[in-house]
Structures are given as C-alpha cells and as structure tokens.
Design a protein that fits this description.
Elements lengths: L6 E10 L13 E6 L4 H12 L12 H8 L4 E8 L2 E9 L5 E9 L8 H14 L5 E7 L6 H7 L3 E10 L10 E4 L5 H14 L6 H13 L4 E6 L5 E12 L4 E11 L8 H15 L5 E3 L6 H9 L16
Parallel strand pairs: 5-6, 11-12
Antiparallel strand pairs: 1-6, 1-7, 2-3, 3-4, 4-5, 8-9, 9-10, 10-11
Length: 324
C-alpha cells in the first residue's frame, strides 16, 4: 500500500531463449575477468559504487558472512570489466537455478558512464551466458535504474514477459517530502540565498541583494522560468531556472536549463531529480524541442545526475563565447 515513506516502483522482467545474432568483439585496452572468490570488501566497492545512484540497497544491508556465502558460491560469477587496468563495472551471472541463468547485477562505475561501455559489457554477458547453453537467460530492471537500462536490454535481445508495480519504502531516508512550485516575482527573496550560493560554487563574490534583484527582474519581465522545491515547513531546498531560446534549424522553442542548485543538507534525497523532472514536464507542456544545459567540467555530481536522467553529452559541436 502507498504511504508517505514509499515511492512507486515499476519492475520489468525480460528473457531470451536463444542467443541473439551478434558477436562480442573485445575493445582494445579492456578485459572482463571473473573474480573467482571476491572478497567482501572488493564486492562492496563494486556494488556500492555502481549502485549508488540507483538505490541498490539489498546487499548493503547484508552481514559480511551472509554476503560472502553468496558471492563466493561457485554458481555465482562476478565478472569485472577493466578499462586500462581500472575496474569500470561488473556483470553478475547467477547459475543457481538449473537450466537458466539470471543476470543478477549489471552496471558501470559512474566515471565510465557515457562511453558506450554499458552495451559493450552487456554484449559480453549475453555471449558468456549462452556459451553455457542455458534454456533461458533473464534479467529484471526497475524504474529506479538508469533510464537507458530497459531499452538497452531490449536492443541486446531480451524481450519483456512481465511487469509489476509496487511501492518501495527502502529509499526512505534518502528521499525528502517536498512540493515543487513555479515561482513568481514574490518568491525572489526566498530563492535569493540559494541563487547566491549557486553563484558562489562558480567562484563569484556573494551578493544576496544583487541576486534577489536579478531574479525579481527576470520573473517580473517573464524572462525566465523558475521552479523551487519547498519542504513541509516552506523552506527552500533547491531551484532550477530555465531561459527561453529557439532553434532555427528545427523552427522550435528550446529551454536552456541554466541553473540548478540544491542546499547541501538536501542533496542525495531526490530534490535535484524532482526539479529536473519538473523542468522536463514543463518543456513537454510548452511543445519545446528539448532542454539544453551545460555544467562545469569539475562538477561530476551534476554530470552523473544529468546522464542518469537521459541527457546526452554533445560531442559533435564546439561552443564559443565572445566577451564584450
């Protein structure tokens, strides 16, 4: 049953009964090696690092002895992808059920996301599984996983055979109760301290008065759209600001997602994702072509969030700026 401490989760089950018609080709500088008897510490490193953004919690809760029994079972294969000698992800094959293999866990360490390695590792896992001649190879994913996970499984030959919907309270403590609203000019004073802190992240001198005036002017003149996340007491947890623009080629509107900021104590609690989802829905409602954003090269946390939500880094064009 739904309650305030739970979130709706859709789980999708996929399977295949024969090897797809493709071949695994190893990339230079990579290798996939089975950890024959992985230590608990090494496995926790893989599990916690790969699953940090996707609310992987089941094995975090296990005692060392319980976890060791599973991962050192001869019928559990922890296959680690290495890139340049560094662990980049893993694919865990579970052979404990006679006649079938489950892809129990699969994913990349965040530093290696966006390099085409997800499909590469999954292709390897499919090839490795069918070399064992199972009757069935299957996997399940859920709506908490990376948004490209489900289509990737389908591209690699899996087909959906069942979906389930339930409410999961395991993420409680990482989520916060909030209300995301669209701002008007009267909200400028509420957002100004956050906007000032956001500018501080980019090494700008603090100026709350200037921040409030800037926001007030943008909102009063309908020059930007701002959404703010408020907790139950009305405290501002974070904001996102969009500026309108247009694409001449597609002759459509686009929105520039210029600013996103969450206060430190509310980070990793779903606030940034909620603000980004609100921005996405607004872009859909206004029939825009899409959302465009940029972030600092050193802002790894933001980059992981954007890629988790399906944003694709532009590697086809260069951006220029003329200071006047």
């Amino acid at each position: 049953m739904n309650n305030s401490n739970s979130i709706k989760v859709i789980t999708t089950y996929l399977e295949m009964f024969e090897k797809p018609k493709f071949f695994f080709e190893q990339k230079p500088g990579t290798s996939v090696i089975r950890a024959e008897k992985p230590t608990v510490s090494f496995y926790r490193y893989l599990y916690n690092t790969v699953g940090a953004s996707w609310l992987w919690v089941d094995r975090r809760k296990m005692k060392d002895v319980e976890l060791r029994t599973i991962i050192q079972d001869p019928k559990i294969e922890v296959n680690v992808l290495y890139v340049g000698g560094t662990p980049a992800g893993y694919a865990e094959l579970d052979l404990r059920q006679p006649g079938e293999i489950e892809l129990g866990y699969f994913g990349l360490i965040p530093d290696f996301v966006g390099q085409g390695l997800g499909k590469y590792l999954l292709t390897w896992a499919v090839d490795a599984a069918w070399k064992k001649n199972p009757k069935r190879f299957w996997v399940h994913t859920c709506s908490l996983d990376h948004p490209t996970a489900l289509p990737l499984y389908q591209k690699c030959g899996f087909t959906i055979y069942k979906t389930e919907e339930h409410y999961d309270g395991s993420a409680h403590g990482r989520l916060v109760s909030m209300n995301v609203i669209r701002c008007t000019e009267k909200h400028a004073a509420v957002i100004a301290p956050l906007f000032d802190a956001y500018r501080g992240f980019y090494h700008q001198t603090s100026d709350i008065t200037g921040a409030e005036k800037f926001l007030s002017d943008r909102l009063k003149n309908s020059e930007s759209i701002v959404f703010v996340a408020l907790d139950d007491s009305g405290k501002a947890l974070g904001f996102v600001q969009l500026y309108p623009s247009f694409s001449s080629v597609s002759i459509k509107k686009i929105w520039i997602l210029n600013d996103l900021f969450v206060i430190p104590e509310a980070r990793k609690k779903g606030v940034g994702e909620a603000l980004m989802e609100t921005a996405r829905k607004f872009a859909v409602e206004t029939h825009a072509k899409g959302l465009q954003l940029e972030t600092g090269i050193e802002n790894i946390t933001a980059q992981r969030l954007y890629e988790k939500l399906g944003y694709v880094r532009n590697v086809e064009t260069h951006q220029y700026f003329l200071k006047v």
